[in-house]
Amino acid sequence: MPDAASPILDVKGLKTVFRTRGGEIHAVNSVDFHLRPGELLGVVGESGSGKSVTMMSLLRLLPSPPAETRSGSVMFDGQDLLKISNEELRNVRGSKIGFIFQDPMTSLNPVYTIGFQLAEPLRTHMGMSKAQARARSIELLELVGIPDATRRLKDYPHQFSGGMRQRVMIAIALACDPKVLIADEPTTALDVTIQAQIIELIKELRQKLGMAIIWITHDLGVIAGIADRVMVMYAGQVVEKGPVSEIFEDPQHPYTQALLKTVPAVRGARAEKLQVIEGQPPIVIEAPAACQFRNRCQFTFDRCEKENPALSEIGPPGHRAACFLLDETVKQEPESVNG
Amino acid sequence: MADPKADGPLVKVRDLKMYFPIHAGLFKSHVGDIKAVDGISFDIAPGETLGLVGESGCGKSTVGRSILRLYDITGGTVEINGSEIAHVDRDSLRSRRPMMQMIFQDPQASLNPRMTVASIIAEPLDEHLKLNPDERLARVYELMDWVGLNRAFAKRYPHEFSGGQRQRIGIARALALNPKFIVCDEPIAALDVSIQAQVVNLLEELQDKLDLTYLFISHDLSMVRHIADRVAVMYLGRIVEIASRDTLFAEPLHPYTQALLSAVPEPDPSYERNRKPIVLKGDVPSPANPPQGCNFCTRCPKVMEICRQIEPEIFHFDNGRQVACHLYSDNMTMTAEPTDGEITKKINKETVS
Questions:
Q1: CA gap A59, A95 in Å, rounded
Q2: What is the model's pLDDT at position A148?
Q3: Rounded distance, CA B36 to CA B15, Å?
Q4: Which among A192, A201, A217 is the top mutation candidate for probing chain B, defined by the most B β-carbons within 10 Å of its own β-carbon?
Q5: How near does any CA of chain A get to the CA of B61, in Å?
Q6: Are A193 and B280 within 8 A, CB to CB?
Q7: Do A223 and B268 touch (CB under 8 A)?
Q8: How does DSSP assign A181-240, residue by residue?
Q9: Angle between helices A130-143 and A162-174 (to 10 degrees)
């Protein structure tokens, strides 16, 4: 991927809060990232780390109230998605940016046929006639590998299996040739063998159609296989990001390191005891003034209590992590971080 | 921890069948069966963890529930700790309940939201033992210590806890009556990655301390590889392969096991780039109408003519390994009884475990 290519999606300083009776939950905190054309960005983190909320905020899909995007900019196609009118946003959602949701059962409408749901974006966004939309729908179902596409247009979501439903979701997301596809845990609800089918499909479609993809998951294995770059989120913040090989082979943030160690492997050596990250992720009630990971971090020291670390560049281009440990060690003995 | 003692297995399951009837039509007549579990046999040695893996809908949870007689099974026998479970009346079953317990998948749904932690953990004690209030409280505290819950939380309600802590409450409840055998039905599936490791480590510690035997049901192959001593792979109501953990993961023999293992992505980009998963075509057939012959023949990449006609027998290899696949029939000099746990035949490429 050429570094020079200008990003197709550029997010800066995104902040989203949920206003609840118990106070404001800071779900997304100053998140910056960009996506280049044709690139696959993996977003990893535990549930509640703000991965989905970040992506939903981009397209203003969160119900407001309680959600409120406080600041930031989302530059796409020369316009700021947070500033444009609802009408203009409608032209972006589902046409220029496609969205695949986690659960294919709840995100398809059970009372409409697959054919109707596929044709809907084609007719609203592309202004196709019924016949054109139907032809394109068949083409799309074939593209995502659903056999007997013509006949299946008349079927309802419950007549499809989980893997097939997810294929339908992908077909809908691809309907208008989006430049960006946001896939929110697209394989989490599926079995491994079906997950393998969907991943192969996405890889294939990516080569064929050349769109940029944001892939949200908590499964590090999935990310390792498909992503170009990875962004690790924790408690609403990006704690580390960088090229996929850097993140997996030389993780710098203690959270990334720990996360990689808690996952047992199917191949290679087997650990006698699993490494654990003690405690649980925090609920961010106040604007964070300290490192969010400090209570679970084994390296925590005074400074972590007082300031919230920002992302800083480390060695290889594009690899950045938010940890004070890096400041300290990089200055003194650059080698010790890797140990 | 996994030394099978001379006195034989703790759990002995033979030809277990669990069919759920399908009723249809105006008079709700019986038109067929969902063969959720269709004739499976296995043993679990004392202190051992048997991992049971398979995709959703393959019947693995039904196996766990049938063994504990949470269902009235259709056929077969189950023997736990020397006593017959499958065909006894309610009263004698009840007296055997304390030795066999279950940890459920969803700690949210399996804990009564209107009971405090103390009363949830103490409920089995109230049902089966006659303890005075002091003894009861002492036991509750002891159990809470075992699973790493703060005693101060005894009066709290389940909703006040996180998912991992709730699962600990479920574990404490399962341990209350000093069981010998625990069925863990996807105990970590609803938890976050970093919390999963905490719960798995707890289960392992408790096993060492209390000499427990587990049936660990999961779809997460990497976790099963971590916790199990032996692994059984299920597909559409049948066990396709059972082997010791290391043998199975090093060299899976059944084409389904091979596909399943190859489909698991590894958190290693350089490995992933070159990994060629065996991608199975299509979906799992309906257990109401399983294919003729081998259940896996509709998706098997190595399918042969015979697979579509005859159901494969179970072939026995070294170390108690069993594979139900026609591919291995040539290796056999004789076919073994499907229920026979003895070693009958070596294959050349037996792996070192």
A1: 12
A2: 83
A3: 13
A4: A192
A5: 15
A6: yes
A7: no
A8: EEEESTTTTS-HHHHHHHHHHHHHHHHHH--EEEEEES-HHHHHHH-SEEEEEETTEEEE
A9: 130
Contacts of A335 (CB under 8 A, 6+ apart): none
> By the 8 A CB rule, do B227 and B303 touch?
no
**A44-95 tens-digit pLDDT:** 988 888 888 899 898 888 888 888 888 889 999 888 988 889 888 888 888 8
Q: Which two tokens stand for residue B201?
A: 């480590």
Instruction: Residue count of chain B, please give it.
Output: 353
Give residue ranges of B with CB < 8 Å to any A CB: 55-56, 162, 164, 192-198, 200-201, 204, 219, 221-223, 225-226, 246, 249, 259-273, 275, 277, 279-280, 283
Q: In three state form, how does the secondary structure of B252-299 look? A: CCCHHHHHHHHCCCCCCHHHHHHCCCCCCCCCCCCCCCCCCCCCCCCC
- Contacts of residues B130-135 at CB distance under 8 Å and 24 or more positions apart, as own/partner, are none
Specify whether the CB–CB gap between B222 and A263 falls below 8 A. Answer: yes
Q: Which residues of A touch B266 (CB under 8 A)?
A: 221, 224-225, 265-267
How far apart (Å, rounded) are the C-alpha atoms in residues A145 and B283?
Answer: 13
Helix (H) or strand (E) holding A40: strand A40-44
Exposed/middle/buried for residue A58 (C-beta within 10 Å: 0-12, 13-18, 19+): buried
Distance from CA of A260 to the nearest CA of B (A): 8
Nearest in space to B240 (alpha carbons), one of B328, B134, B150, B120:
B328
* Concatenated DSSP letters of B157-193: -GGGS-HHHHHHHHHHHHHTT--SEEEEESTTTTS-H
For residue A188, give the amino acid letter: T
Decide if A99 contacts A54 (C-beta within 8 A): no
B350 contacts: CB under 8 Å, gap ≥ 6: B247, B317, B318, B319
SS3 letters across B188-256: CCCCCHHHHHHHHHHHHHHHHHHCCEEEEEECCHHHHHHHCCEEEEEECCEEEEEEEHHHHHHCCCCHH
Q: Do A259 and B193 touch (CB under 8 A)?
A: yes
Question: With contact defined as beta carbons under 8 Å apart, do A225 and B272 qualify?
Answer: yes
In angstroms, the first-to-last Cα distance of chain A is 30
> Which residue type sits at A80?
D
User: How high is the ipTM of this complex?
Assistant: 0.76
Q: For chain B, how long is the longest CA-to-CA vector?
A: 68
Q: Do strands A237-243 and A229-234 pair parallel, antiparallel, or not at all (unpaired)? A: antiparallel
Q: Which residues in A lie closer than 8 A to residue B56 (C-beta atoms)?
A: 162, 191
A112 Ramachandran zone, left/alpha/beta (phi>0; psi -120 to 50): beta
Residue pair B24/B288 in contact by the 8 Å Cβ criterion: no
DSSP bridge pairs for B127: none
pLDDT in tens, A267-303: 777 777 888 888 778 877 777 888 888 888 888 888 8
Cβ of B280 and A277 within 8 Å?
no
Q: Which two tokens stand for residue A63?
A: 């119900």
What tens digit of pLDDT does each residue of B8-24 get?
Answer: 899 999 999 999 988 88
pTM of the model: 0.82
List the A212-217 sheet strands across, edge first: A97-100, A180-184, A212-217, A40-44, A229-234, A237-243, A320-321, A312-313
Cis before A65 (ω within 30): yes
- Interface contact B55-A191, CB threshold 8 A: yes
CB pairs under 8 A between A and B: 123
Q: Do B226 and A275 touch (CB under 8 A)?
A: no
Contact A50, A91 (CB under 8 A): no
Query: Dihedral angle at the C-alpha atoms of A106, A110, A115, A118, nearest 10 degrees?
Result: -30
Q: Mean pLDDT over residues B233-257, rounded?
A: 93
